[in-house]
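ingest -> validate -> predict -> emit
validate: passed (alphabet ok, no gaps, 504 aa)
predict: started
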Amino acid sequence: MSLQNLKEKFEELKKKFLDNENDEVIKECKKILKKNKIDVFYNLLCLAYNNKGDSNKAIEVMNEALKHNPKNPDFYNNIGMSYSNLYKYKNAEEFYNKGLEINQNNLEILNNLGNLKKNLYKSEDAVKIFKRILAIQSDAITVIYNLALLYSQMGKYEESKELLKKMLKMNSNLTMADSMISQTTKYDSNHPHFLEMKKKLSNMKLDDNSLLHLHYALGKAYNDQKKFKESFENYKKANDLSKKISNYNFENDRKKFDLIKDKFNSLGNIKLNKNTRNFIFIIGLPRSGTSLTEQILSSHENVFGGGELPYLERIFKNYIETKENLDEKDLIKCKKDYIEFTSNLDNSNKVFTDKAPLNFFYIGFIIKFLPNSKFINLVRNPVDNCWSMYKNCFPTKINFADDLLDLSNYYRKYQNLMNFWKKNFPDYIYDLHYENLVSNTKVEVEKLLNFCSLDWDENCLNHHKNKRAIKTISFNQARKPIYNTSVKSYTGFENYLNILEDLV
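emit:
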């Protein structure tokens, strides 16, 4: 194949990759690489495997590529990304650094390393790396957004807003910036940003994703002004667009709830011995108070707050979901995998918290392979809870929250599953009522620490002074002293939420 033909073939496969035709890309790249060891085809093959979720195969491809050309920094970057996809952060950092030894100003590697530091709660290191990139390329818009997001998570809201405004000057279509600005802004009818967003909505042609973020932001702005009709209309438009994009079908989640019970019932009495480290899982539905609770607990001198970790879902898929008959060896793999992952974040003997709310799916399985675990189930007024999910745009979309009927159905299935777990493991699960926590904080924190077998620590009442980054959309609320304005936050919207009334 001539050089010109190879160039044309690469562009053709690149388009297929962007269209998510990964199997075709893999097949064609392999065919080409048998005869022509060309760097860009190795890279494309690696990315296609990662897109398919096979990061181990992607690493194999890149190791083969390094034999061909050990001086290509992109290869090290791709191996780093693949390890990062597997949550093997130490391996990822090692390969990013190897790539930087070849090209210390490789912006893509630096950006990935910055995001890795952010994931490891090394926020100041991440800030330095992002600033280093912007010193080289001041208009690197992805990096500007990453730094703005990190500043928000660190509680540096003004620094974040300045960067988000810079993004909008560069490209006013980037309405994710509008949405982020709205989260830390209090609007009146003459607020300049509110007027800009209204103008943008009427004058600009935006794609569905950009419109979605703009409607969420306008919903928040009208809500601040107590214009409930206009607010709800914008929230509904945002959610309708989100559901159109995701094509969510509640029946798939209904099957998952049923599968969980069936899988657990097939486990029998297998259970591992207690491990040396204690884990606390903060669960419930999103927007129920899980971030606030972790912020309180992670202020304790003997607790490390791990944040919202996606890892247990991966463990369930890798070792449990597809197995017909689980045995002790499978549970040992689950335990080893989870402990190895969490040690990337903190390898001390402190109690470790994991606050991914939807870990409620896996309670029984976690108890089997991490028997000295405890679960704090956040319970909030159902209408408040569902309304808060509906009106917020989550970084990782929670698709069941895009429709009020779906939300209602999902909430009932969640309650049903929690009743199942409580019946099986009454001593492991503690219901913490959000309304009680904000109205009678000291008493509730004392009860919480007692359940967690932790001594009293006054720092838990000063959680708002905790400097750890909060990587959820609750970054603003969980950083404030306790307040109760989120109780009955749906006031004014009652006429639009009739479908949720039966949940109370």
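The mean pLDDT is 91.
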